[in-house]
Design a protein that fits this description.
The complex is a heterodimer. Chain A is mainly beta. Helix content of chain A is 0%, strand content 53%. Chain A has one domain: Immunoglobulins (Immunoglobulin-like, Sandwich). Chain B is mainly β. Chain B has a single domain, classed as Immunoglobulin-like, CATH 2.60.40. In chain B, strand 7 and strand 8 form a beta hairpin. Classes of the chains: A mainly beta, B mainly beta. The interface between A and B is medium-sized, with 23 and 28 residues.
Chain lengths: 116, 113
């Protein structure tokens, strides 16, 4: 079984400042990793994903994340945030054993609040 | 269709009633997932279909919850004898296969009064 921990439930930050949203996972098998964003009153939208290859993954809207296998982390970063980045961000993991393949496990989410 | 469609967008029902929530996945997607998102929580896995069969239903909380996907496309989540604790946003997602990224619908907000 897999689990995801998002260490910060809320992250306030000023516009144009850098931000890091933390995500740690646990799994006994290899995993795929995802970050989703949920804007107010909207559905979940994929920001980026790690399947294999380069551990630094770039996504939409200037976000990137780095897969660190030894630390079982997949932190999300953006060098300069905008007001429009205000949303809730969810980290998710998918285990690659046959029994749970396809089943995305989500963290509890981090609310990013960008202030002018 | 262009995206995952869920109907209705909002549903208010009385405690004890039966409800059905519908999901139309992206055309051609073989994998379909149902999640439940309670206020302040991340999406909680309910059930995963690969084609017509439920590949993993370990997330269904009890036998009041049931889901079908008879033709491998549209899916219906059925909840019997609804309880106030069932109030949540029910999310549906689909993907080409179980290995690829999932695309989510806007969800159905279920309120049990």
């Amino acid at each position: 079984a897999q689990s995801v921990t998002q260490l910060d439930s809320q992250v306030p930050v000023f516009e144009e400042a850098p931000v890091e949203l933390r995500c740690n996972y646990s799994s006994s098998v290899s995993v795929y990793l995802f970050w989703y964003v949920q804007y107010p009153n909207q559905g979940l939208q994929l920001l980026l994903k790690y399947l294999s290859g380069s551990t630094l993954v770039k996504g939409i809207n200037g976000f990137e994340a780095e897969f660190n296998k030894s630390q079982t982390s997949f932190h999300l970063r953006k060098p300069s945030v905008h007001i429009s980045d205000t949303a809730e961000y969810f980290c998710a993991v998918k285990g690659l054993d046959g029994g749970s393949q396809g089943n995305l496990i989500f963290g509890k989410g981090t609310k990013l609040s960008v202030k002018p | 269709g262009a995206g995952v469609s869920q109907t209705p967008s909002n549903k208010v029902t009385e405690k004890g009633k039966y409800v059905e929530l519908r999901c139309d996945p992206i055309s051609g997607h073989t994998a379909l997932y149902w999640y439940r998102q309670s206020l302040g929580q991340g999406p909680e896995f309910l059930i995963y279909f690969q084609g017509t069969g439920a590949a993993d239903d370990s997330g269904l909380p009890n036998d009041r919850f049931f889901a079908v996907r008879p033709e491998g496309s549209v899916s219906t989540l059925k909840i019997q004898r609804t309880e106030r604790g069932d109030s949540a946003v029910y999310l549906c997602a689909s993907s080409w296969t179980g290995d690829t990224e999932a695309f989510f619908g806007q969800g159905t907000r279920l309120t049990v009064v």
